[in-house]
TrEMBL record:
<dbReference type="GO" id="GO:0070402">
    <property type="term" value="F:NADPH binding"/>
</dbReference>
<dbReference type="InterPro" id="IPR013154">
    <property type="entry name" value="ADH-like_N"/>
</dbReference>
<dbReference type="GO" id="GO:0008270">
    <property type="term" value="F:zinc ion binding"/>
</dbReference>
<dbReference type="InterPro" id="IPR002364">
    <property type="entry name" value="Quin_OxRdtase/zeta-crystal_CS"/>
</dbReference>
<dbReference type="InterPro" id="IPR014189">
    <property type="entry name" value="Quinone_OxRdtase_PIG3"/>
</dbReference>
<dbReference type="Pfam" id="PF08240">
    <property type="entry name" value="ADH_N"/>
</dbReference>
<keyword id="KW-0560">Oxidoreductase</keyword>
<dbReference type="InterPro" id="IPR036291">
    <property type="entry name" value="NAD(P)-bd_dom_sf"/>
</dbReference>
<dbReference type="Pfam" id="PF00107">
    <property type="entry name" value="ADH_zinc_N"/>
</dbReference>
<dbReference type="InterPro" id="IPR013149">
    <property type="entry name" value="ADH-like_C"/>
</dbReference>
<dbReference type="GO" id="GO:0016651">
    <property type="term" value="F:oxidoreductase activity, acting on NAD(P)H"/>
</dbReference>
<dbReference type="InterPro" id="IPR011032">
    <property type="entry name" value="GroES-like_sf"/>
</dbReference>
<feature type="domain" description="Enoyl reductase (ER)">
    <location>
        <begin position="7"/>
        <end position="319"/>
    </location>
</feature>
<keyword id="KW-0521">NADP</keyword>
<protein>
    <submittedName>
        <fullName>Putative alcohol dehydrogenase</fullName>
    </submittedName>
</protein>
<dbReference type="InterPro" id="IPR020843">
    <property type="entry name" value="ER"/>
</dbReference>
Length: 321
């Protein structure tokens, strides 16, 4: 088969590589589509090696058709159309996946469109709902509202009955409002802490989904409501920082920080089950839809990464082998 290989940090080659074979508990999927994630950009640059046992090629999600079923797998068959959460290897013609990371194609979506969902659905579900326990009537602040994660988080927040505030460059605001954002903040010109407080009558956000990390620690605490929860999933603003713990304690706030890729396989299977039970019906009903900026050939993966690094996209960039 062919896959995107990284022979030197920063560069991609669409190269011939050995076909995957399914290990115990795995299936092999012939890839119809994969999607670009920020983690793939870091992997290409040499900053984010795949976890042990994962395929060496980038790609954290895909959709496609099962072509082989490994020992010990029950409930799946050759020819089944699926999408999957991957630890790597989506930028390829075929990929081996633990069966617990498979999801059916949601009702009403094409096989290709379904590739836009597994990574964002699992990340947002596990951090915003499973960890931060967003509840109906609360306010969710989503940083990076225009990205793949952000466009999904806005829709999920609304579906759960929350008020949603999103930060993004202004050119993206109209689309984020269409997705349900109650307030959009241009973080390049407006202080999101003040805007969030004003919009919530001084209370602040109950849950903050953060992709910036160190640079926003103090500001996120300042924008947080009493008993609020900050869920950090990215470090686009650095990994080491200082913040006023006293301010967090006064609010009885909490901060979580979690990455999906490095989680043990049974943990991922649990998250995938939660997504299947709670999120897939919302997708099937059209309440949440995949937001796809554009679709590109897998051989153009380097160009797709340049687009992601420019942040000029809204939602997901799909890659087709
Ligand atoms: N922990 C996990 O398990 C996990 C899983 C998946 C993703 N992530 C992380 O989540 C983040 C988003 O991923 P993604 O795939 O959605 O990437 P993406 O599509 O590139 O979205 C990132 C967005 O951030 C915006 N942005 C940049 N600086 C910002 C700032 N200071 N304030 C608000 N927005 C800002 C960019 O748009 P504008 O600047 O144009 O508004 C862009 O839309 C990444 O850091 C990624 O590593 C973590």
């Amino acid at each position: 088969m062919h896959a995107i290989t990284i022979e030197q940090p920063g560069s991609f080659t669409w190269a011939e590589v050995p076909d995957p074979t399914p290990a115990e508990g795995e299936v092999v999927v012939e890839v119809t589509a994969s999607a670009v994630n920020r983690a793939d950009v870091m992997q290409r640059q040499g900053h984010y090696p795949p976890p042990p046992g994962a395929p060496p090629y980038p790609g954290l999600e895909c959709s496609g058709v099962i072509t082989a079923v490994g020992p010990g797998v029950t409930g799946h068959h050759v020819g089944e159309r699926v999408c999957a959460l991957l630890a790597g290897g989506g930028y390829a013609e075929q990929v081996a996946v633990p069966a617990g990371q498979l999801l059916p194609i949601p009702q009403g979506l094409s096989l290709q469109e379904a590739a836009a969902l597994p990574e964002v659905a699992c990340t947002v579900w596990s951090n915003v709902v499973d960890i931060a326990r967003l509840r109906q009537g609360e306010t969710l602040l989503v940083h990076g509202g225009g990205g793949g994660i952000g466009t999904f988080a806005i829709q999920l927040g609304k579906a759960l009955g929350a008020t949603v505030i999103a930060t993004a460059r202004e050119s993206k605001h109209a689309q984020l409002k269409d997705l349900g954002a109650d307030l959009t903040i241009d973080y390049t010109s407006t202080d999101f802490v003040e805007a969030t407080r004003d919009f919530t009558d001084g209370r602040g956000a109950n849950v903050i989904l953060d992709i910036i990390g160190a640079r926003y620690l103090d500001k996120n605490v300042a924008a947080l409501a009493p008993d609020g929860r900050i869920a950090i999933i990215g470090m686009q603003g650095g990994r080491r920082g200082e913040f006023d713990l006293g301010a967090l304690m006064t609010k009885r706030g909490s901060i979580s920080a979690a990455t999906l890729r490095a989680r043990p396989i049974p943990d991922k299977a649990r998250i995938v089950r939660g997504v299947h039970e709670r999120i897939w019906p919302l997708v099937g009903a059209g309440t949440i839809r995949p937001i796809i900026d554009r679709t590109m050939a897998m051989s153009e993966a380097a160009e797709a990464h340049r687009l992601m690094e420019s942040s000029d996209h809204i939602g997901k960039i799909l890659l087709l082998p």
